[in-house]
Each structure stands twice: as C-alpha cells, then as structure tokens.
Amino acid sequence: MSSIAPEFRLSRFVASLTDIIFWVVVIFTLIGLPIVLILLFYIQLPVINDKLLTPYLALTWLADPSRTLPIVKSLIHTDFFRITTFPGFGFAALLAAGTIFIERKLLAKMQLRVGPLYCGKIEGILQLMGDGLKLISKEIIIPAKADKPIFWAAPLLFVGTAAAFISLIPVAPGWVVADVDVGLLAVFAVIGFFPIITLLSSWSANSKFPFIGGIRALHQMVSFEIPLILSLLGIVILAGTLNLTEIVESQQHYWWIIFMPIGAIVFFTTILAELERIPFDLPEAESEIVAGWLTEFSGMMYGLVQLGSYLKLYAFAALFTVLFLGGWNGPMVWPPFPQEIITEGIKMGPITLHVPGLPLLDQEMLNGTLWFTIKTVGVILVILIPRGVFPRIRIDLLLHTGWYKLIGLSFVNIFIALTLVYAGVLGPGGLIQ
Amino acid sequence: MADAVFLAISVLTIGSAIASLEVRSMIYGSISLMVTLAGVAGFFLLLDAPFVAMFQISVYVGSIAVLILFTVMLVRRELLFHKIEDPRRRYAGIGLMIVIMLGIGTIIIGSGIKSMEVDAPSVDFKEIGKDFLTYYSPALVVMGLILASAVIGALTLARREDVTNEQRTD
C-alpha cells in the first residue's frame, strides 16, 4: 500500500463505486428516460427503407456487424470526424501525449536517471494519466489582482490557436481539415497569434515573473518570426504554390531538404525558438524566473497551456515534414487488403462471415499516414534531444542569432532557390521534374 | 448565409472599433482594436480575397497590434496622453465623421462602382504577383526603396553615439 493514502480499503472503494452506479441507474430511470421519451415525441425521426428510424432500431443496426461498418465508413468521411479525430485534434493530441512521455523517459536515459518508473508498473507508462488526473483534480488558483477575463481566456485561446495550426497540416493524400489555397500564409497568420496570447496572459497575471517571461517570449517569438517566414520563401519559389498539399505533391521524387539544406537549418532553429525549447527556453527559464509566463497558472489551466504547447510542437514538426521531408511520400510498404475477404468473406471453421463495407481505409492513405507519422516522430525526437545536451543561452545572443545570422542565412537560401530557378534546373519547365 | 455573416462581422467590427475608443482600460482598448482588424480580415475573406485576408491578420493583428499592446503595457498612460474631458469635442467628432461618411457615400453611389458584378470569379493572387512584376514594376521598386529608406532612417534614429555598449557580444 502506498503511504500517501493509508486509509485506503479496496472494499470501500468498490462499495463507493456500486453506490455511484446505483444512484446513476435510479436517477436515469426516474428522470432521464422520461426526458428522452418527451424529446422523442417532438423530434422528427427519419424514415429509412420505409421504416421509422427509432432509437431502438438505430441501436439494433449499430449492433449488427454487417451494418456497422458502412455507418462507421460514412462517419469517417464527415467533417466532424476530420476536425475532432483523424487529421485534426485527436491524432495530434495522441502524438503530443506520446511526446510528453517519450521526452521524460528519453531525457532521463540521457542524463543517467530512471525517469517515471512506478506508475503503471512497466517503466511508468501510466505516468501521463496520473499527471492528467492530478491536474484535473487540482484547485485553480487565480491571483487576487489578476485581470480575470484575460487570465481565464488565455489557456483556452492558446489551445485553440494550436488546434487551428494543426487543422492546416495535410497528413495523407486528401486528409486535411482545411485545404486552403494560401495554406502557408494561413500558417504565418496563425503563428502570429501566439505572442499576443503569451503577452496578454503574462500581463493579466499581475505578477513580476510572468511579465518578465512574457516580455522575453514576445521578443523571441517576434524576432524569430522573420527568419521563419523568409526561410520558407525558397520552397514557395521552387514549388510555385502556397498550398501545403501541393507542396507535398511537388516532392514526389526528391525532398526539398536536398536542395535547401540552409533553409531547413534556419527553419529548424526558428522552430526551437518559437517553441521555447532549450537552448532558447528563456521565457520559461526555471532557474531565473520560476516558470516564466506559466508561473501563475495552476491546475487544469496549466494543463491546457502544456497541451497547447505540445500540440504546437507536433504542428511545427509536421510542418517541417510537409515542407522539407516530403510529407506522406514514401515507398509503398503497407500490405494490400486481402481480396478474398471482400469476395469470399472471413472463414472461421464452419462459419463464413460476410462483412460489407471493407476495406475501411484505402491502402494509399494508410501508407501515407505511416510515412508521415514516422517522419514527424523523427523530427520531434530531434527537437527533444537538445534539451538533454545544451545549456540555455543569453537573450542578447539569442536576438543576435535571430536578427543577424538567421536572416542572412535565409536570404542566402532564397538566392539559392532563385539560382536553381533561373538556371533552369528546378521549377516550372526545369531539367528535373 | 453570406448576408448573415456580413451583418455579424459588421456588428463585431464597428462595435469593437467603438469599444477601442471608449473603453477606459487601454489594454482592453487595444484588444478590441485587434478584433476590429481581424473583422476587416473577415470582410476580405467574404470578398473572396484570402490572400489579402491572411496578410491583414499576420501583419495587422500579428505585428502592429502586438506593437501597440507592448507600448501600452510598458509606458505609463500619463506619458502617452493627457485627458481632455470635453463633450463638445466628441459631438464635433461624431458630426465630422457623419459628414465624411456621407460625402464618401455620395461619391461612391455617384460613380460606376455600384454596378459591379456579383458573380465574378475571384482574382487569383498569382495574377496580382505577375502584374506587380511586369506592368507595375516601377511602383514595386519605388515601394521597396521607400521601405528601405524608412528602415535605414529608423536604425539611424535608434542609434545613439553617447551610449557605449558594455555588454559582451561574443
């Protein structure tokens, strides 16, 4: 037994669980069911195959495996699924959660520590769940003289902006939430919101450490936005489009990192600065200004800001993959769906199960997602590793790096791209297509 | 649908513009200015000009509004403004605005703009780029020179001879 809760008894825990279940059942039958029946009286139900689609019929259809798959398949192609689950929020949140755990474990191994170990018995794999439960159950403390509306809104806005960034990333052919013609410009527009939110939240806490951190974050993000935008112009010149999907399609035979390694290096450095990661983590320098602009956040507000920053990490790594590493392009390694299941059904001894609606997802999409995920995870690992190696640098060196060296290098990159275009090597009508 | 969105964006833009002038707290004033600028971006999106809308957001909301916010936070309000409470000035301002809007409105209604096509296809931003580099290239060059001279002038003004830099730069 742990020493934290010495009065813990399994029997009491089970009793409280059964108690809760009993009351839920009682309240649902007495109040919930009448409400459902009253609502059903007013809702106009659709008629399918000359049958009124009552909830009972809908549940029956859902339980029937031969009808479930087409329903699921039509669900997958809705906008709702795209926004919440696959190329959108759910997929990104899953990768972000994995990133948090991998980061803690990887850094611990690099520094000869053990990292999270006890939660979940095997190498602490349930640590993240424990942390989440802790953050949800913690009290949210707001400083007495804080500006409350802005202070409350800041974490939500941060997560929302990160989610808007994610929605622009194409994951597999045709799998993107918002396929806009000016995708790269939309990315720049979304990135511009992060310094505002950081500065407002740090100001609204009405405390010294967050404000210093917020000012640092503002300096850092605003000055590194310029090399970020300039380093991507080379790709726009060579690909001839701003649409992220078309940029991926233009890298079918070779990746842009081959022709523009300087641009890739500049972009990677600016990613580190925009994400406030070591060696550029001055806004959250824990040895100087407590936790920087996150100091006054507590409970789930802190959790939301952390979620937002890891979503941002995923989004930037995915953007690097899309722009420089060829996105979903890669050799076809996903096995094709076995044809005999579609034609003959699944044979289990004497029973043959015919499942209409298979395959659920086509081979190209799965293969693309696989390659995209592998590349993105690789980029995320490369972003994580400096944290175990480098110290934090001074702010004047940071700004010097941003304004002098990176901007100069990104101009060099643009000239390389222009040379390739005018020499007739790449671009429209070039030697290599 | 488009009409409803237009009305909503108009109310948001004008309301936040009034709020940015009238709100006592300067931080909230600059936030509402940000909402106004974002609302203008919404108008551009409604007009099938996503290129301009994205630049509106990234330049005005992302940079200029941040600059205003930063200045407001760092400088005391008394140093920036001194208050002159005079209701007559406000009424004069409102009257002047109405006169100017009426004037512009009569000019626009009198000109040929009112008979514009509604179903015309949106202008591709690549065409704008081509025009800039071919027919309007002198304008582009002049614009670049003006911006460069502004940047050089700002650097010259910001540079101070009497302060020696004591920090290490290695």
Description:
The complex is a heterodimer of chains A (433) and B (170). By secondary structure, chain A is mainly α. Chain A has one domain (87-422). Chain A contains 18 helices and four strands. Chain A has helices at 10-42, 55-63, 65-76, 79-84, 89-110, 127-137, 148-166, 183-191, 193-204, 208-239, 244-249, 256-259, 261-274, 299-324, 339-343, 363-384, 386-389, 395-422, and strands spanning 47-48, 51-52, 346-348, 351-353. In chain A, the strands form two sheets. Chain A has a two-stranded antiparallel ribbon with strand order 1-2. Chain A has a two-stranded antiparallel ribbon with strand order 3-4. The longest helix of chain A has 33 residues, at 10-42. The termini of chain A are far apart. Chain B has 170 residues and is mostly helical. Chain B has two domains: 1-83, NADH-ubiquinone/plastoquinone oxidoreductase chain 6, subunit NuoJ (Four Helix Bundle (Hemerythrin (Met), subunit A), Up-down Bundle), CATH 1.20.120; 124-159. Chain B contains seven helices and no strands. Chain B has helices at 2-22, 26-46, 50-74, 77-80, 87-110, 125-133, 137-158. The radius of gyration of chain B is 21 Å and the shape is extended. Classes of the chains: A mainly alpha (433), B mainly alpha (170).
User: H/E order of the elements of chain B?
Assistant: HHHHHHH
N-to-C terminal Cα separation of chain A, in Å? Answer: 66 Å
Strand content of chain A: under 5%
| Biggest interface | A-B, 22 and 20 residues
Helix-and-strand structural type of chain B: mainly alpha
Output the structural class of chain A: mainly alpha
Low-confidence stretches of chain A: none
Number of self-contained structural domains of chain A? 1
Helix count of chain B, per DSSP?
A: 7
Helical content of chain A (DSSP H or I, runs of 4+)? 55-70%
Annotated CATH homologous superfamily of the largest domain in chain B = NADH-ubiquinone/plastoquinone oxidoreductase chain 6, subunit NuoJ
Total helices of chain A: the number is: 18
Largest sheet of chain A: 2 strands, antiparallel
